[in-house]
Every structure is written in C-alpha cells, then in structure tokens.
Amino acid sequence: MALAGTQLSERDRKEFNLMGMEKLGAFTAAYNAMAWASLASSQTLAMQMWLAWCTPWMGNRGANRLAQQMQQAAVSILSKGLAPAHAKATANARRLAATPLVAAPRRRTRA
C-alpha cells in the first residue's frame, strides 16, 4: 500500500477493491460463524445450568463444570470468529508475496 503512492495505477485500484471485498466477506463469515457458535454454546450452557440447579447434592462440582464450560464456550466462539479472517489474511499474504512489486512512477520536478 505504501508503494502505491497517491496516484493509484489500475492494478493498485483493482487490488485495493479486491482487498475491501475480501475483508467484507471474511468478516461476514466470521460474524456468521460466531453467531452459530454462540447459539450452540448458549444451548449447552443452559442445559448445564439446569443440571446444576436440579442437582444441588453434587455441591460445587456442577458449578465448577459450568464455569469451565463457559470459559471453553468463550474461547470457542472467538476462535470460530477469527478463523475466516485469519484464513483470508494468510491467503492474501501468500498471494501478494508472489506478486512482483512495481515501483511507483517518479514525478518530474522542474528545475
């Protein structure tokens, strides 16, 4: 991006447009993945809360298990959200590493 300068070539315009569309797609996929993971986790956590509430004779074991599952759910939701953005970023890095750099055109200066 820094080599593009202020005057963008057609190649740079296409690349920046592609980058914007890819980011939009990646974050849409990330949001969708996080929403589905959140839905699944909330159902699991609701069941664990119900079990902990219905079995008070289990003592702290039910509460400890619930706390552990809440922590695992948070990590799972975040990892599912980061996966599409990470995949797109690494694919872009590989693609751009193979693209030859073109030096920005030099401006003429008047003497």
TrEMBL record:
Protein origin, superkingdom: Bacteria
Name used for this protein in its record: Phasin domain-containing protein
Organism of provenance: Pigmentiphaga soli
